[in-house]
Amino acid sequence: MYVALVVCLAAPVAWADDRGCLVEWRVAGGEPMRDGWAASCRDGDVACDADAAADGVCTFAASLCLNVRDPAIPECEPATLGPVHAGGRGASAIAIAAAAAAIHFPVSAADVCTAEAPVRVRLGRRSRRTVVLRARARDLASGRAARAALHLTCARGAALGAEPARAIVVTTDFETGLLATVGVARPHSVGRPTSPIHADAVVRTFGDRVYVVNRFLGDNLQVLDPARGLATVVQCSTGPGSNPHDVAVVGPHKAYVTRFDRPELWIVDPDPPSCAGFFLGQIDLGAFADADGLPEMDQMTLVADRLFVSLERLDRRRDFAPAGKSLLVAIDTATDAVVGTVELSGGNAFGESAGLVHEPRTGKLVVAEAGSIFRTGDGGLERIDPFALRAEGFFVTEDDLGGNVTDFVLVSPTKGYAVVIDDALHNVLLAFDPSRHAVTRRLLVRREFLPEIDLAPDGTLWLADRGLPAPGIRIFDVASDRPLTRGAIDVGLPPFAMAFVP
Fold this sequence. Notes:
There is one protein chain. The protein has 2 domains: 2-158; 161-501, Methylamine Dehydrogenase, Chain H (7 Propeller). The protein contains 2 helices and 39 strands. Mean pLDDT is 87; it is low at 1-20.
């Protein structure tokens, strides 16, 4: 939900002025201050950091509105405004200034808003940093001005929790599913939680909860409490035969669940007193399906007050071959209405076990599009601008990487890692330079599937290696690409998916 700042015509008694309210900042979260509002965020917090990455930058989604009608202030009336000036010091103000410049002036209509703009607050070497945005508009009839300030504070994400970081690992032989935990710090101690899970499952973490999505033939969402040894808090059905694939939590009592084998996206309470209160509603995405009637909804992510859902659009009548291009659907989390779609450049927007990726520093989404999983050359990695709802084309292709991408992480503009399946059906972990479209190193080759790679809270690269005879977790240094473990860390059954707490 957005918190709005409404500022009346500037004067010594501005708050009592009844001439009309001219300028309003909108940003997710906020607290009132003497000269406006303040919003704060910890780097990587999905509730407020629009890029959702712990990358030393908090990305706030902000917009500026003019002539706002506020039912709480009925005496406020629109004015005729000249050009609004918006900005602040440094690069953090560029995006909002550009958005304000796109408005056509003079403005006399009510409720005229800029597009949401990504405002980035970079920490650098600081643990905390605040930037101030200011906006000024002038009433052309009276010559009087209104001013509004917005204070945005970014804090380093490491301060979020005091508990030692650990990975929650789904392990499976696809007959039995078990959980394991692995400490991020040496000596990477392994734990064995007792909560049973389904043999086909993925794991997500939001706040102080762990969510296990029990997928094909499991058909439920399982909520675990790390403070109680990952005990199961609640486990509720997502509908028979629904095959859930992902969960996105937007609040203490609201989340979304993608259902791969059904056309309806579910809205659920992730912390209900019982499963009787779990289902809250649904959003029918059947209009975006291919001819088989199912859109194959898969992965999700949040950007400010929008939920993005990937639709693979596979033709089940042709062995799940891509049925044209995949889509991203944008949903307003306040109204649960579909507010836009993005047609991707390729088909089969595929993610085996990880959600949609936020690119470090840009706030853009990056999607892997595999096309035909049995052929190289029809897919790659594509950036999507979540504010403009625009796909930007492949910036790294399958030909660049030598295979179909099944998972990837981006470390910087010049460093990424990917798992690809080549034409000989080898699974390869490789490092690549996105700026040069080039593979820089092949780290590991397996006949067995490598289902997930992820960046740990300490910045190391973790790999779920199902390679026999010694499957387990492998850890790599991202500066040198060298392995940090002598072999795979044994987690029992072969690892399939992982997430990190706190």
